[in-house]
Amino acid sequence: MTELYQVGAITQTHGIRGEVKVFPMTDDVSRFKNMKELILDTGKEQIVLEVTSARPQKNLVILKFKGIDNINDVEKYKGCGLFVTKENRVKCKKDEYFIADLIGLRAIDEEGEAFGTISDVIQTGANDVYVITTKQGEEVMIPAIKDCILEVSVEEQDGQAGYVRIHLLPGLLDLNNNRK
């Protein structure tokens, strides 16, 4: 089964010519201009749709699909998610990663010893925070900054999940223990 990544959700129709308003689930709505096809998940089936036009409108994107030319053809898709395959995702810049690729990575310390697994990523605005579930089952929050995240490899190696090599700043574990 192909891995799919949600990039938006249809909120409502736009006009009578089959256009839809989409709530984007990406940090850069201009990415929709370069998308050639999207996968519509109706809950019962997945339909590949060819994007013929995309334009931003406030916090939404107006999309038009090939072969959908009136409001009646698209009305039934309100609330449905729009997805891309892993191959069709936009390319990340250096030191940028998709959250979906980070979840499940092994966290290892500077010596390569197992520390835990990334179980969540919190977006704070200033920097992301990786939530790592330790081998003991406790959650530790590590800021995703160069001082703490030394290396990231999202690729599987020798049948094991990728990893993130971490440096625990002095007092960081104490801060995590005090939040309980």
UniProtKB/TrEMBL annotation:
<dbReference type="Pfam" id="PF01782">
    <property type="entry name" value="RimM"/>
</dbReference>
<keyword id="KW-0963">Cytoplasm</keyword>
<keyword id="KW-0698">rRNA processing</keyword>
<dbReference type="InterPro" id="IPR002676">
    <property type="entry name" value="RimM_N"/>
</dbReference>
<keyword id="KW-0690">Ribosome biogenesis</keyword>
<dbReference type="InterPro" id="IPR011961">
    <property type="entry name" value="RimM"/>
</dbReference>
<dbReference type="InterPro" id="IPR036976">
    <property type="entry name" value="RimM_N_sf"/>
</dbReference>
<dbReference type="Pfam" id="PF24986">
    <property type="entry name" value="PRC_RimM"/>
</dbReference>
<feature type="domain" description="Ribosome maturation factor RimM PRC barrel">
    <location>
        <begin position="101"/>
        <end position="156"/>
    </location>
</feature>
<dbReference type="InterPro" id="IPR056792">
    <property type="entry name" value="PRC_RimM"/>
</dbReference>
<keyword id="KW-0143">Chaperone</keyword>
<comment type="function">
    <text>An accessory protein needed during the final step in the assembly of 30S ribosomal subunit, possibly for assembly of the head region. Essential for efficient processing of 16S rRNA. May be needed both before and after RbfA during the maturation of 16S rRNA. It has affinity for free ribosomal 30S subunits but not for 70S ribosomes.</text>
</comment>
<feature type="domain" description="RimM N-terminal">
    <location>
        <begin position="6"/>
        <end position="87"/>
    </location>
</feature>
<comment type="similarity">
    <text>Belongs to the RimM family.</text>
</comment>
<protein>
    <recommendedName>
        <fullName>Ribosome maturation factor RimM</fullName>
    </recommendedName>
</protein>
<comment type="subunit">
    <text>Binds ribosomal protein uS19.</text>
</comment>
<dbReference type="InterPro" id="IPR011033">
    <property type="entry name" value="PRC_barrel-like_sf"/>
</dbReference>
<dbReference type="InterPro" id="IPR009000">
    <property type="entry name" value="Transl_B-barrel_sf"/>
</dbReference>
